[in-house]
C-alpha cells in the first residue's frame, strides 16, 4: 500500500459536535480542513449535554477549554419515584475524577458547540486553522475521487471526506447503507427553567443537587417509557429537562427536534407526575417535542475516501447520554489514526477506523436502546449487577483508552 501524503486536505460535511471535533482533531494532527455546514448556525438549539470522561479527556487533549462553558460537575445520579419524587436510588460520582481523569461535566449544548467552533477556527491554535463554509448543503459524494457536490452548485475535491451529517445523513446511503429505521415507542419533550425563577417562585431548586435526576416508574417495559431526566448546566443557572412518554399518546410524526410545544401539552402528558416537577413545568421555556426513531446498526462506515461518524452512522437513543461523547471518540480517532505517530495510507487508516469504532459504537447503541425502557440499563445504574456480558459498565465507557485500542487493532491488522 502506498504511503499517504503527509498533510491531507480534508472536507468535513456537517458542523455539529462530531464534525467540529473531527475538524479540530485533524487540524491538531497536521491536516488542512474545510468544514461544510448546510445552515448558518442561527438555529442552534438544545438543552443540557452530559460529557462523560471518555469525551472530556479527549477534548482536553485536543486543547478544548471546556471550563469556558461553565459546566456543572455532576456529583450523583439520583433515581426518584415518578409520582412523588421519593428517592429510590443514588449512584455516587464522588470518585469519578479520580477514577477517570476528568470530572463528569454537564454543559449547555449551545455552549459546547460554540466552543468547538471557536477552537476549530482559532487563528492561534495548533496547526492550520480550519475553514468554515456555511450554506453548503452536501448533496453527493464521489467516494473514489473525493468530490463533494453542494446544493449551491459548488464542488470541492478532498483527499479525505469526513461525513458527520447527523441522523438524517445523506452520505450514509451513498456509501452503501440503505435506510434502516422505524419509529420508536417513545416521544420526548425538552424544556428549560431558569434557576432564579425557580427560586423566586419558591419552587424546588433541583440544581443544588448537581446531579442527573430521573423520575421513573420503576418497571422496565411499556411503563418504563415515561421518564423525566433533569440536570443543571451553565454554572447551575439553567435547569434542563428531557421528558419521555409513550408515542401511543399522540403518535407524533414530526421528525425534527425543534418543534414548539406548550406548557399545557407538557403538563397534560404527565398528569400523575410528582407535583414538584409539574410546578416547574409551569414556568418552563423553550419547550420542544419530537418523536424518537430506532436505527439498526449500519454496515459500512467507510468507502473509498469517505468516512462516517457521529449520529450519521450510529444514531442512538438518548438514554445512556452517550451519543455526543461517542461522536467525540470517533472524531479523535480519525485525527490520531492519521497522525505522525503512524504512516497509514488512507485506505488502511479508514479500515482501522471502522474496525475500532464500529464494535464499540454498536455496543453503546444497543445498550442505549435497552435503556430507553429500562433505566437500570443506564451506565452507573447498570454497574450494580454484572450479570450479562452485553451490559454496559461505567468503567468500559468512562475509562476507555482509545489510543491503546487503535494501536492494538492496528497490530492485529498487521499494519503496525
Ligand atoms: C434528548 C437528547 C439528549 C441527549 N443527551 C446527550 C448527553 O447528555 N450526552 C451525550 O453525549 N449525547 C447526548 N445526546 C446525543 C447527542 O446530542 C448527539 O449524539 C450529537 O449531538 C450528534 O452530533 P453529530 O455532530 O453527529 O450530529 P448533529 O448534531 O446532528 O450535527 C450534524 C450537522 O450536520 C449538518 N448537516 C446535515 N446534513 C448536512 C449536509 N447534507 N450538508 C452539510 N451539513 C449538513 C447539520 O446542520 C448539523 O450541523 C442527546 C441526544 C438527544 C436527542
TrEMBL record:
Which positions fall inside the FAD-binding domain?
9-365
Recorded GO MF terms = FAD binding; monooxygenase activity
Pfam family example for this protein? FAD_binding_3
Which of UniProt's keywords are assigned here?
FAD, Flavoprotein, Monooxygenase, Oxidoreductase
Q: Where is the signal peptide?
A: none
> In which family does this protein belong, per the annotation?
Belongs to the paxM FAD-dependent monooxygenase family.
PANTHER family in the record: HYDROXYLASE, PUTATIVE (AFU_ORTHOLOGUE AFUA_1G12410)-RELATED, MONOOXYGENASE
For this entry, the protein name equals FAD-binding domain-containing protein
From which organism does this entry originate?
Answer: Ogataea polymorpha
Amino acid at each position: 500500500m502506498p504511503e499517504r501524503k503527509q498533510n491531507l486536505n480534508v472536507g468535513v460535511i456537517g458542523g455539529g459536535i462530531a464534525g467540529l471535533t473531527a475538524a479540530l482533531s485533524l487540524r491538531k494532527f497536521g491536516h488542512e480542513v474545510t468544514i461544510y455546514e448546510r445552515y448558518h448556525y442561527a438555529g442552534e438549539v438544545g438543552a443540557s449535554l452530559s460529557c462523560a470522561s471518555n469525551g472530556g479527556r479527549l477534548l482536553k487533549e485536543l486543547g478544548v477549554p471546556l471550563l469556558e462553558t461553565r459546566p456543572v460537575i455532576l456529583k450523583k445520579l439520583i433515581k426518584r419515584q415518578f409520582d412523588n419524587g421519593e428517592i429510590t436510588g443514588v449512584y455516587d460520582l464522588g470518585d469519578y475524577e479520580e477514577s477517570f481523569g476528568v470530572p463528569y461535566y454537564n454543559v449547555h449544548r449551545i455552549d459546547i458547540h460554540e466552543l468547538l467552533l471557536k477552537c476549530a477556527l482559532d487563528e492561534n491554535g495548533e496547526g492550520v486553522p480550519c475553514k468554515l463554509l456555511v450554506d453548503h448543503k452536501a448533496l453527493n459524494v464521489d467516494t473514489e475521487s473525493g468530490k463533494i457536490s453542494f446544493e449551491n452548485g459548488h464542488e470541492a475535491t478532498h483527499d479525505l471526506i469526513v461525513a458527520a451529517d447527523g441522523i438524517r445523513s445523506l452520505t450514509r446511503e451513498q456509501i452503501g447503507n440503505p435506510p434502516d429505521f422505524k419509529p420508536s415507542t417513545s416521544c420526548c419533550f425538552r424544556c428549560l427553567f431558569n434557576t432564579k425563577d425557580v427560586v423566586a417562585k419558591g419552587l424546588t431548586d433541583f440544581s443544588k443537587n448537581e446531579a442527573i435526576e430521573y423520575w421513573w416508574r420503576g418497571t422496565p417495559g411499556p411503563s418504563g417509557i415515561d421518564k423525566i431526566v433533569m440536570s443543571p448546566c451553565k454554572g447551575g443557572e439553567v435547569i434542563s429537562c428531557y421528558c419521555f412518554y409513550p408515542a401511543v399518546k399522540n403518535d407524533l410524526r414530526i421528525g425534527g427536534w425543534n418543534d414548539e410545544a406548550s406548557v399545557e401539552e407538557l403538563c397534560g402528558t404527565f398528569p400523575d407526575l410528582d407535583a414538584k416537577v409539574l410546578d416547574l413545568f409551569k414556568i418552563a421555556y423553550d419547550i420542544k417535542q419530537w418523536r424518537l426513531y430506532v436505527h439498526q446498526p449500519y454496515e459500512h462506515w467507510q468507502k473509498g475516501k469517505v468516512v462516517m461518524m457521529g449520529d450519521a452512522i450510529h444514531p442512538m437513543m438518548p438514554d445512556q447520554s452517550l451519543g455526543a461523547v461517542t461522536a467525540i471518540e470517533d472524531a479523535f480517532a480519525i485525527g490520531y489514526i492519521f497522525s505522525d505517530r503512524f504512516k497509514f495510507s488512507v485506505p488502511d487508516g479508514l479500515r482501522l477506523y471502522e474496525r475500532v469504532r464500529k464494535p464499540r459504537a454498536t455496543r453503546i447503541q444497543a445498550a442505549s436502546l435497552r435503556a430507553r425502557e429500562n433505566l437500570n440499563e443506564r451506565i452507573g445504574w447498570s454497574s450494580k449487577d454484572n450479570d450479562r456480558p452485553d451490559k454496559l459498565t461505567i468503567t468500559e465507557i468512562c475509562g476507555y483508552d482509545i489510543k491503546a485500542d487503535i494501536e492494538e487493532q492496528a497490530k492485529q491488522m498487521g499494519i503496525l
